[in-house]
Amino acid sequence: MALDSSHYNEQDIIAGKYPSDHFTMRLQRFLARAGVASRRGSEKLISAGRVCVNGKQVRVLGTKVMPQYDHVTVDGKEYVLGNDHVYLLLNKPSQVLTTMSDPFGFPCVASLVPCDDYPGLFPVGRLDSDTTGVLLFTTNGNMGNRLLHPSHHVWKTYVALIEGKLTSSQMQKLSQGIMLEDGMTSPCFIRTITQDEPCTHLDKNHSLFDDMRLNAASSLCELKIHEGRNHQVKRMLQEIGHPVIKLHRFQFGPLCLNAQIPLGSWRMCTQQEIHDLETVCEDNT
């Protein structure tokens, strides 16, 4: 007999209060991840009355199900979630929105990854439109939510091309935490770097360096944070008088992109990277 999924919610699972097999998700998301149709296509199936949960017809969008206990059928055929989730890394280019669709027609990351091959694929977190770099996609909602939860944020490393030159006192101020309009930031790691430094993980021909060649007053810095506030890196550097010209994220937790993955391209995560992600989630529970 199916358990009453109303006893549990997504935030409970993220916080680790209940085992993952009690995890609930919206019915249209379940159908998409089970490979029935896209999220939007799944909504049409529900509205048309073709979907049943535990033998009862469901027409209400947003109905939640427990994948491990509820029986979901479409036109009488039962569907279940597979155990094999998909994990891939996109090297996000500039001027692309981190969203799966945009009502105004702006370019979105969904057009750069194989959504049709892997229904339910979604980005873990977001990057600003003009920020480039590593963006994780997965069909594993439980892991994605854990990686983004405020109490479990993973470290993220950026290279920023900024106006002016950072001083030692400014870097110390940032590293200890700086007051922004939404509160004090947590301590971070920051250092200045050079274009020829190999540990930047960037090819010397990366577009970040184009402006540096044109503007002798600009400089590069590497900044590592574990919070996830909106525009945080840009706001931190703006606060100390060094506006960001360009920003690139080259590491997200244990995941790192190198120059072999061109902007706008993606690759599957390796088994070692998936294992490392699972370890991060376990360590943060």
UniProtKB/TrEMBL annotation:
Residues 25-81 form the RNA-binding S4 domain. GO terms for biological process: enzyme-directed rRNA pseudouridine synthesis. SUPFAM superfamilies: Alpha-L RNA-binding motif, Pseudouridine synthase. It catalyses: a uridine in RNA = a pseudouridine in RNA. Its EC number is 5.4.99.-. Belongs to the pseudouridine synthase RsuA family. This is Pseudouridine synthase. The lineage of its organism: Bacteria, Bacillati, Actinomycetota, Coriobacteriia, Coriobacteriales.
